[in-house]
Every structure is written in structure tokens, then in C-alpha cells.
Write a structure and sequence with these properties.
The complex is a heterodimer of chains A (84) and B (256).
Chain A lengths: L2 E8 L7 E7 L4 H12 L16 H8 L2 E4 L14
Parallel strand pairs in A: 1-3
Antiparallel strand pairs in A: 1-2
Chain B lengths: L54 E4 L21 H15 L16 H10 L16 H12 L3 E6 L3 H17 L4 E5 L6 E8 L6 E6 L10 H6 L3 E5 L9 E6 L5
Antiparallel strand pairs in B: 1-4, 2-7, 3-4, 3-7, 4-5, 5-6
Helix pairs in contact in B: 1-3
Classes of the chains: A alpha+beta (84), B alpha+beta (256).
GO molecular function, one term (chain B): deUFMylase activity
Pfam family, one (chain B): Peptidase_C78
Protein name (chain B): UFSP1/2/DUB catalytic domain-containing protein
């Protein structure tokens, strides 16, 4: 099986650390993210430009290319809390 | 992930949450016709936020105001992200000309439908369906892609005044090229905001966001009442929480 290569950057860190990974194209993308996030920082979540992690690395590569970004997820519900 | 409940009196002044105090009122029966009671284009007629605005960019087409309980489901305290998502979905249904006509006219998904879709696509566990768990801009991007085949650009703003003003430039570009409403969510600021426009003063002097606040629970209101309560209003970017990061969900609807 052929491999695909990603450069995954952590955008929440102003130093923009990144990891380059090569994986078989059939690899579940969730596994790619887990490894990249652990390598780059303690980030637990992945966000890209509308990428659903529940697909293979090969599919993600074909749709979105090789340069991806990790963004922390937001969660919204109640009223926001802010400084006085 | 911890979910915050607001039991304090602190908060950014985004306007009143409810005109009805502690009492909860049934809005409408839960049926497919409820959107007829929701106010349309609630932002029309708002005065300019400053006398020296040099650039202003707004959504194209019409926009409906979705809020807590507007379809009969009481989602107070947890559903604001879903409601902003419904505002965006309604715009796609009514104000956008998709490349494929088959993609048009899918009504906004209900809160249960949104939850079931996130489970079906593998983003959430089965226990998520029927829960009161919050969603954010990333989940919104998944849903718009799932139901409308519209990809979304998710822009991360790390926080701080400079970053937020850069985000204002991103929003100008979005409204001018794409035209769709935007969803804004954050971490410390965990209040969903629908963004319908942006305007800017001369360079370096700041910007304002046209914010539609879904945190209203009560019967449908007329446009003037919504504006009077600050539920649709211009907000100074400088009033946002500089210690919070923000994400912006920008539906990519422009023809290529």
C-alpha cells in the first residue's frame, strides 16, 4: 500500500510547532491525529478546515492535501464569562 | 471536556437573555411550520456603530433569527451553538444558490437531528444523542458539510487585541466573497455568536462585529424589540475577551 505524507501544525501555539508524518493511505485518520497531537503538544483535539477525522489518511490527503492544522475545539452553550 | 455553567453575575454585556425573567414560556408547538414565527433580517435598521466607519461588509440575502426554545424544545443553557448553526443552515436553504439544485431547500436540522448526525459520522459517541452537551464551530462545520455539502473554513484566533483585529479583516474578505453568516465560538468566552457583518474604522482604530445572540428564551419578538434588547447589535471587537481564543466557522459558498 502506498503512503501519504502530512505536515501537521499546531496553530494554537504561536511558535507553530509541526510534525511531518508518512503513513499508509489506509490508516484511519484518527490514528494520525492522535500521534501527531501527542508528538506536537498535549493537544487532544484536531480541527482542520472542515475535515471529519473519521476517514482514511488517503481520503484526507486527496481532499485536503498535505498541509493540515490542529486547532483547539471551542464549546459553546451558556452565557459567556469575561473580564469586568 | 468540562462544561461551564454560568451561575455568576459576571459576563460580557451581550444584551438581555430573556424579557420574561424567571418564567419559561412555551414558544410554539414543535412542528415544521415554526420558522414562520421567527423574525427575519433582525439586523436591518441598526444605526452605524461609529461616525467614522470606512469599511462595512454584511451577509448577502436574508437571515432568520434562531434562539433558545424557538421550535418548542427548551435548550436554555446548552443549545446556543445549535441555534447559531440553524441560522447558518437556514441561510443556505433560502439565500444561497448552490451549484446543484438538489442541495437547496433542506430545512435546518433540529437539535436531535444534529446530534444524531454527529453520531452517525463518527464524531461523537452514541451517548451524545439526546444529551445536553454543547457543540462548537467544528461540529457546525461538519453538519453544514453533511447536510448541505458545503465545506467550511475554520479560522483560529489565538486571542488578544491584535489577533482579533486581524480576524476582522478575515471577516471582511468572507462577507465580500462568500456572503454567508458566520459562527463564532471560544473557550473562556463560551457564548455562541452569529456574525452577520463587520465594519471598521480608519486603520488601527478598531472594528465592530454585527452579532446575533441566540441566548434569548421567550416568544417571538419583533425586530425593534430584538434590537432594543441588544440581541442583534454591533459589538466593538475590543469588548471581546482577550484571554479567550475564538474560532470562526466560515461556510465556503462562493462559486468557483
Amino acid at each position: 500500500m502506498s503512503k501519504v505524507t502530512f505536515k501537521i501544525t499546531l496553530t494554537s501555539d504561536p511558535r507553530l510547532p509541526y510534525k511531518v508524518l508518512s503513513v499508509p493511505e489506509g490508516t484511519p485518520f484518527t490514528a494520525v491525529l492522535k500521534f501527531a497531537a501527542e508528538e506536537v503538544s498535549g493537544a487532544r483535539r484536531y480541527n482542520g478546515i472542515g475535515i471529519n477525522p473519521a476517514q482514511t489518511a488517503g481520503n484526507v490527503f486527496l481532499k485536503h492535501g498535505s498541509e493540515l492544522r490542529i486547532i483547539p475545539r471551542d464549546r459553546v452553550g451558556g452565557r459567556g464569562v469575561g473580564p469586568r | 471536556m468540562a462544561y461551564m455553567e454560568d451561575n455568576s453575575a459576571e459576563g460580557i454585556d451581550w444584551g438581555h437573555k430573556s424579557v420574561l425573567g424567571e418564567k419559561k414560556h412555551r414558544c410554539t408547538e414543535r412542528n415544521s411550520e415554526f420558522t414562520g414565527a421567527l423574525p427575519e433580517n433582525a439586523h436591518i435598521g441598526l444605526p452605524s456603530p461609529a461616525p467614522d466607519i470606512v469599511k462595512c461588509s454584511l451577509i448577502s440575502g436574508d437571515c432568520l433569527y434562531f434562539h433558545y426554545g424557538c421550535d418548542g424544545q427548551d435548550d436554555s443553557g446548552w443549545g446556543c451553538g445549535y441555534r447559531t448553526l440553524q441560522t447558518m443552515a437556514w441561510w443556505l436553504c433560502h439565500s444561497w444558490c448552490p451549484p446543484s439544485p438538489k442541495a437547496k431547500c433542506r430545512p435546518p436540522p433540529s437539535l436531535p437531528e444534529i446530534q444524531h448526525a454527529l453520531v452517525a459520522m463518527g464524531d461523537k459517541p452514541a451517548s451524545f444523542a439526546g444529551s445536553r452537551e454543547w457543540i462548537g464551530t467544528f461540529e457546525a462545520s461538519l453538519i453544514l458539510d453533511y447536510y448541505y455539502n458545503v465545506p467550511c473554513k475554520v479560522v483560529h484566533v489565538r486571542g488578544g487585541g491584535i489577533e482579533l483585529n486581524r480576524a476582522a479583516e478575515e471577516l471582511h474578505e468572507h462577507f465580500q466573497s462568500q456572503g454567508s453568516p458566520v459562527m463564532m465560538g471560544g473557550d473562556r468566552d463560551n457564548s455562541s455568536k452569529g456574525i452577520l457583518g463587520v465594519c471598521s474604522r480608519p486603520e488601527g482604530q478598531g472594528s465592530y462585529l454585527l452579532v446575533m445572540d441566540p441566548h434569548y428564551y421567550g416568544p417571538p419578538l419583533e425586530r425593534a424589540a430584538l434590537q432594543g434588547l441588544g440581541l442583534v447589535s454591533w459589538k466593538n471587537v475590543g469588548s471581546l475577551d482577550t484571554s479567550s481564543f475564538y474560532n470562526l466557522c466560515l461556510p465556503q459558498t462562493a462559486k468557483t
